[in-house]
Amino acid sequence: MDIIRWLVDATNSVDSLIEDAQEAIALLQERRTALISAAVTGKIDVRGLVAIPETDLVRSCG
So which domain of life are we looking at (predicted)? Predict the structure, then answer.
C-alpha cells in the first residue's frame, strides 16, 4: 500500500506541475498576441528595436 500511496502522491505532483506549465504557456501566448497586436496597430513603436539573436536567448535561459 505504501508504494501505491507514493505513486498517487507523485502523480498528483506531476499533474500539478503540468497544470502550472499549461497556465504559464497560455499566459505567454496571450501576451505574445497582445504584443503583436500593439505593434501592428501602432500602439507601440518597434522601429528602433533590435531582435536578440537566438543563440543569446538560449545561453541566458540554459
Answer: Bacteria
